[in-house]
Amino acid sequence: MRILFITATRLGDAVISTGLLDHLIRTYPHARFTIACGPVAAGLFQNVPGLDRVITMDKRKYDLHWLDLWKACVAQKWDLTIDLRGSAVTALLRSSRRVIMRGGRRPGLRLAHVAQTLSLSPPPVPTVWLDPSDVACATTLLPTTGTPLIALGPTANWSGKIWPVERYLPLWHRLQSAYPTARPVILYGPGQQERDLAAPVLAALPQAIDAGGRFSLTEVAAILRKCQLYVGNDSGLMHLAAAAGTPTLGLFGPSRASEYAPSGAHTAWVAAPGPEGDAAIADLSVSTVAEAALRLLAETSS
């Protein structure tokens, strides 16, 4: 059985789609999968069971990336095509069954919208597939003692989503007062912009483990899996933490928690006061974040 799975360009949306992909893998355990996604998300799928290949869709003028995808897929007869981008490509491929999620913004969790393509309720939660080298990377980087590891994600792809970086030091003081042996783990994406955003937090917390910028997505997921908590902005990294099974606290300002709250067994979110979708994240207080973080830690460490 051959399945084509077309998912998102952005990391967060791609992570959200992994729950649906995992459902397909479990439903069709002998299927072979081809996954099409944006370059930022491609590494997320490298360990998918039954993977034939990942097609990286580099955006081109005049939507020519869709023509590239058609050329890459037209020779194959597909048993099932899942298109979460709402494109016309699957209509032009030979496929026994087509499932297309139409585009456009709508109320409710994005996770539920993805699940509705196959009428799944409750929606399957996101996941991540690791291999032994990912686990070995995390084991090498992180201490193997009983030290509690608390991951912080101070970056995001939009400045409006970023909680002021100077808040992380007082936040850490609050967390460390309850967990004196805890150690921070700072995560951020590749590139100088991400590094610059994380630099003030790394400087303020000299005891922190720098776990940003140089790891693959699955290595980052393995690092997150060894942490007792993740606190960070609404971002792809937040969704990856939740998919890894790490207790995850998402910080929301002008983005909508009703659409993009982290999903998983141990997840929570806090939002700045004000109208959803139009709140300033700078109005989200250290006390609010600290109380929610400590509550999530207490719930998951008992």
TrEMBL record:
One of its GO terms (molecular function) is ADP-heptose-lipopolysaccharide heptosyltransferase activity. Pfam families: Glyco_transf_9. Gene3D superfamilies: Glycogen Phosphorylase B. The lineage of its organism: Bacteria, Pseudomonadati, Pseudomonadota, Alphaproteobacteria, Acetobacterales. Keywords: Glycosyltransferase, Transferase. This is Glycosyl transferase. GO terms for biological process: lipopolysaccharide core region biosynthetic process. One of its GO terms (cellular component) is cytosol.
